[in-house]
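Tokens in:
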């Protein structure tokens, strides 16, 4: 998978975006609507109090926007490829590509871009940066914030990649596909709102809350004089999940060939 091929695939994705303009418009519109509803709900929560369980309204909005930015970066880069990959596996359309002298894992992960999600991302990214600047982070904290943003995208990719790869063995993935979406919806809330056991799981073992709550977790950890352990857990978990996704891909390809 070289840059020239990637740019060619990106150009093809842009043509599809321009071809289905009306569909793309509604995708963009609904993306904004869902986030606007979440933020509007936060305004209702804080009508009569400036802080709920130690979480301010600014904290809550930052959590929603941080998660939206990471999510729409993943959607822009990978969701179109993931959606078509499961169909190609089930319908047996991988044969030609698997015979080509390229890394099939990277090709099927990067072959399509979702440009409607890019429109949402262009709005959410500066909005998130605006709310993050209210915390007056120092340069070390900003490094952690940016690192979590990049690793968070890889985390979402790895989980969704593993789910899609189940199509090598199972035709109906509807119940499994719901898991990443449900996990993502869970992360829209502050970590402090969860029971302690669930909070530990979702910040250390399946650290989706480390992505959305990054501003609060980084500030709290560095103020106490130690590195953000939840962010370290996110990095380790992402590396492990990516390795698992690549391993499952290799096993799935062997199963695909044997089935043929």
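Residues out:
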């Amino acid at each position: 998978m070289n840059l020239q091929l990637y740019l060619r695939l990106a150009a093809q994705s842009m043509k599809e975006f321009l071809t289905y303009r009306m569909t793309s418009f509604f995708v963009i519109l609904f993306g904004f609507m869902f986030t606007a509803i979440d933020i509007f709900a936060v305004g209702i929560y804080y009508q009569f109090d400036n802080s709920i369980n130690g979480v301010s309204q600014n904290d809550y909005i930052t959590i929603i926007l941080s998660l939206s930015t990471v999510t729409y970066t993943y959607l822009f880069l990978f969701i179109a490829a993931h959606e078509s990959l499961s169909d190609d596996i089930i319908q047996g359309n991988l044969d030609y590509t698997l015979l080509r002298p390229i890394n099939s894992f990277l090709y099927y992960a990067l072959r399509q871009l979702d440009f409607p999600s890019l429109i949402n991302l262009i709005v959410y990214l500066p909005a998130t940066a605006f709310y993050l600047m209210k915390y007056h982070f120092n340069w070390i904290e900003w490094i952690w914030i940016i690192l979590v943003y990049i690793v968070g995208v890889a985390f979402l990719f790895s989980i969704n990649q593993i789910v899609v790869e189940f199509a090598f063995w199972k035709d109906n993935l509807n119940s499994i596909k719901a898991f990443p979406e449900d996990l993502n919806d869970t992360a829209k809330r502050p970590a402090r709102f969860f029971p302690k056991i669930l909070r530990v799981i979702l910040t250390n073992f399946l650290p989706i809350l480390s992505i959305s709550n990054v501003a609060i977790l980084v500030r709290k950890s560095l103020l106490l004089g130690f590195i953000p352990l939840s962010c370290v857990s996110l990095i380790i978990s992402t590396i492990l999940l990516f390795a698992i996704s690549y391993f499952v891909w290799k096993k799935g390809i062997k199963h695909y060939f044997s089935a043929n």
